[in-house]
Specification:
Length: about 210
């Protein structure tokens, strides 16, 4: 394998760009250093140069508190959102995503308590697709939405995401869905004001790792 110190400047830019592109979450300088093994100051200089040059047509590099990620440029968000709506979510998945977006960050145990044991499968799917991250938090895991979560749907915040999924849930509720269990609470009842009214479902003892 080619050693990174043999890469020229253009190749180094391409390698870092590829890392930002493939990562489902913002990237720290230490993350890049762990692979490239070049001084973090040099990595920072490369990233800043890439950001200033802005040679990307539909993407841009964003630096937030010294973590970096690629995002779709604002002028293309509406079109990208329409394109990504081809991914079909079940009514139950929409409700789980909405709950996660609304409560972000939150514990996995809270999701299961509110959405039921089938949410384990939803969480596994969202994690695999890069929509969420999970970190150990006591006896459970803390779930946070990723930049991909927002960019995938052309959103700027978790609140925008919650409103979007709520509208989708209302749309899907009008359609016949024999595979879904009837009698679920509407999304409006998953708010802070009605937290005590949520159904309690027996949890599995094993958390998703």
């Amino acid at each position: 394998m080619t050693e990174t110190h043999l890469f020229n400047k253009e190749q180094m830019h391409g390698l870092i760009e590829a890392m930002l592109f493939i990562s489902p979450h913002p990237v720290k300088l230490s993350d890049i250093y762990s692979v490239l093994k070049i001084p973090k100051k040099e990595i920072g200089n490369i990233l800043n140069e890439m950001k200033q040059n802005n040679n990307y047509k539909g993407l841009e590099i964003v630096n937030e508190n010294n973590v970096y990620y690629l995002k779709v440029k604002d002028e293309y968000l509406d079109y990208v959102r329409k394109f990504n709506q081809n991914r079909e979510f079940s009514r139950a998945e929409i409700q789980t995503l909405s709950y996660i977006a609304y409560k972000n960050p939150l514990n996995q145990s809270d999701v299961i308590k509110t959405r039921g044991n089938r949410a384990y499968e939803h969480i596994k799917s969202f994690l695999k697709e890069g929509f969420i991250d999970m970190e150990p938090n006591g006896h459970t895991n803390e779930i946070t939405i990723t930049r991909k979560f927002l960019d995938y749907f052309g959103m700027n915040s978790a609140e925008d995401m919650r409103k979007y999924f709520e509208s989708q849930m209302m749309k899907n509720a009008k359609e016949s869905d024999e595979e879904e269990t009837s009698g679920e609470l509407p999304l409006s009842q998953y708010s802070e004001d009605n937290e005590n009214e949520n159904p309690v479902v027996e949890e599995k003892t094993e958390e998703i790792k």
